[in-house]
């Protein structure tokens, strides 16, 4: 579904990604781990072109994302993204946060969008917050709303950029529960996370990124049980 | 009236008069004799009219410049729109020139060079002030747009919203709240700067005061009176702005 070939990204001379290859199948949950500064988030943000790659190719469902002729807005409508800092729209109610994009892009009409928003909010246990503003929600609630906001566009892929890193520890669980549900429902997911427990339990494939390259990848058992590379072993010893 | 004439005669004759008598005479002479208060009143009307026109023009220009400059700066690298680049260059020249030259000089150039044949000093004045205010307003609005967290733009675009929709529904509503206090300040500056159009013959408040001074040769009451009127106007507007801002914040206090 997503094919990444030799992806490179530099920021003013600093090469953050030094050629990353990846293939994600439909329904697969891929988790990136690695030390900070290794390029995990940059890689994820390149997938929907929030960062413009300086080299390589990204092909999503047969369409080249990096081709200047590609309608990038259309492509982004098919990929949901969840951010570390939620990025809910503080000037809107939760319902407005959820329905703005589906309505404005013509994906759903107002009635459909509101019904979908209600249904998804119910699934994450936040239907009573529908008329609230983001400022009235806890961090965990905000992130669940942010996930729902992305899901309202019926994306084919969900990108998670360290979704639990900005949360108080007691709120991490509720967000991971939603992500676990989502993975179980067959959603294609690409996650960057520091939650090793989540990676071990939910991921179909774990990739260890170090210094802009994929150093090692495999099933969670392989990576967490028998890491081959010294860097991976070193990293896992520190975080586990 | 008779009282004024009698005391005025005493002063003119160099007779001994009390402070209160003098004050009465000069005040009467500055504001009441020959219904001069009407001149001030007309001046205030012109001042407010010029402020309003200049404000409208300034905001329209400011929004235009700010949106073009922000859109230009936020283009994807390698995807430069030449039209936008050209417009951006013009806007930058505009902001640089207007901010880099004194308002008085701009007024004189507009009044005596570009529109030298025009007798409509009020319109020329409002035009000049509006063009001037636009440059400052543009920077205020640009600052407001940039003050909105970059994550908001990313969230909007990641949902597949286009740039214009993201600006319209997400960025601009949040920027307005940050902009309003500075915009109110710009408005007050503008109101006071209208006094400058008297140099090109715009018949606003200060022009009226100068007219009275040239007839009576008594500067104190007309000028101090003018200052008091400006102060009162500014205080009224500050009060109104305060109410407006409090309202805006009240709708924001939701947590």
The gist of it:
The complex is a heterodimer of chains A (240) and B (255). Chain A has 240 residues and is an alpha/beta fold.
Low-confidence stretches of chain A: none
Structural class of chain B: mainly alpha
- C-alpha geometry of chain A: globular
Give, in order, the helices and strands of chain A: EEEHEEHEHHHEHEHEEHH
User: How far do the termini of chain B sit from each other?
Assistant: 64 Å
What is the element string of chain B, with H for helices and E for strands?
Answer: HHHHHHHHHH
**Separation of the first and last Cα atoms of chain A:** 32 Å
Largest sheet of chain A: 6 strands, mixed
Beta-strand proportion of chain B? under 5%
Give me the Rg of chain B, rounded. Answer: 24 Å
**Strand order across the largest sheet of chain A:** 6-7-8-3-9-10
**Largest interface: which pair?**
A-B, 33 and 23 residues
**Average residue pLDDT of chain A:** 94
> What kind of sheet is the major sheet of chain B?
none
% residues in beta strands of chain A: 25-35%
| β-strand number of chain B | 0
> What kind of assembly state do the chains in view correspond to?
heterodimer
- Number of helices in the DSSP assignment of chain A: 9
> What form of chain B results from the Cα inertia axes?
elongated
Percent of residues in helices of chain A comes to 25-40%
What does this molecule look like?
The complex is a heterodimer of chains A (240) and B (255). Chain A is α/β, with parallel strands linked by helices. Chain A has helices at residues 40-47, 72-76, 94-104, 110-123, 139-151, 169-184, 196-202, 220-225, 230-239, and strands spanning 2-11, 14-24, 29-33, 55-60, 63-64, 79-82, 157-161, 188-192, 205-210, 213-218. Chain A is built from nine helices and ten strands. In chain A, helix 3 (94-104) packs parallel to helix 5 (139-151). The two termini of chain A are 32 Å apart. Chain B is mainly alpha-helical and 255 residues long. Chain B has ten helices and no strands. The radius of gyration of chain B is 24 Å and the shape is elongated. Chain B starts with a helix and ends in a 5-residue tail after the last helix. The mean pLDDT of chain B is 88. The A-B interface holds A 48, 50, 52, 68, 73-81, 83, 85, 87-92, 100-101, 104-105, 132-133, 135-136, 146, 149-150, 153 and B 76-79, 149, 151-152, 154-162, 165, 169-170, 173-174, 254-255.
């Amino acid at each position: 579904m997503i094919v990444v070939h030799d992806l490179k990204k530099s920021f003013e001379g600093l090469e953050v990604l030094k050629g990353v290859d990846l293939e994600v199948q439909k329904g697969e949950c891929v988790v990136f781990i690695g030390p900070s500064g290794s390029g995990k988030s940059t890689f994820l943000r390149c997938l929907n072109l929030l960062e413009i790659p300086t080299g390589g190719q990204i092909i999503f469902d047969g369409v080249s994302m990096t081709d200047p002729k590609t309608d990038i807005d259309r492509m982004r409508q098919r990929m949901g993204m969840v951010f570390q800092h939620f990025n809910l729209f503080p000037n809107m109610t939760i319902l407005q946060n959820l329905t703005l994009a589906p309505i404005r892009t013509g994906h759903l009409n107002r009635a459909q969008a509101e019904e979908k928003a209600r249904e998804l909010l119910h699934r994450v246990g936040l239907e009573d917050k529908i008329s609230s503003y983001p400022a009235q929600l806890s961090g965990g609630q905000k992130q669940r709303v942010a996930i729902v906001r992305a899901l309202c566009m019926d994306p084919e892929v969900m990108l998670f950029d360290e979704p639990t890193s900005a949360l108080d520890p007691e709120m991490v669980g509720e967000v991971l529960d939603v992500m676990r549900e989502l993975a179980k429902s067959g959603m294609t997911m690409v996650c960057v996370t520091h939650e090793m427990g989540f990676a071990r339990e939910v991921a179909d494939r774990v990739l260890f990124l170090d210094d802009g390259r994929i150093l090692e990848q495999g099933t969670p058992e392989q990576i967490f049980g028998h890491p081959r590379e010294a860097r991976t072993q070193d990293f896992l010893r520190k975080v586990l | 009236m008779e009282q004024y004439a009698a005391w005025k005669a005493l002063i003119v004759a160099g007779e001994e008069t009390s402070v209160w008598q003098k004050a009465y005479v000069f005040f009467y002479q500055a504001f009441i004799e020959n219904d001069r208060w009407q001149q001030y009143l007309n001046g205030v009307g012109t001042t407010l009219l010029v402020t309003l026109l200049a404000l409208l023009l300034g905001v329209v220009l400011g929004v235009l410049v700010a949106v073009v400059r922000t859109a230009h700066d936020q283009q994807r690298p390698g995807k430069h729109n030449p039209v936008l680049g050209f417009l951006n260059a013009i806007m930058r020249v505009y902001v640089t020139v207007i901010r880099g030259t004194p308002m008085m000089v701009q007024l004189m150039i507009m009044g005596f060079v570009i529109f030298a044949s025009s007798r409509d000093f009020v319109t020329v004045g409002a035009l000049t002030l509006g063009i001037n205010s636009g440059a400052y307003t543009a920077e205020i609005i640009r600052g407001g747009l940039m003050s909105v967290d970059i994550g908001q733009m990313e969230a909007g675009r990641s949902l597949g919203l286009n740039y214009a929709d993201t600006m319209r529904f997400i960025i601009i509503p949040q920027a307005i709240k940050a902009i309003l206090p500075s915009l109110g300040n710009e408005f007050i500056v503008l109101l006071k700067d209208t006094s400058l159009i008297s140099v090109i013959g715009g018949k606003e408040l200060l022009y009226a005061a100068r007219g009275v001074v040239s007839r009576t040769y008594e500067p104190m009451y007309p000028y101090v009176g003018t200052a008091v009127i400006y102060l009162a106007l500014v205080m009224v507007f500050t009060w109104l702005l305060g109410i407006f801002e409090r309202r805006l914040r009240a709708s924001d206090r939701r947590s």
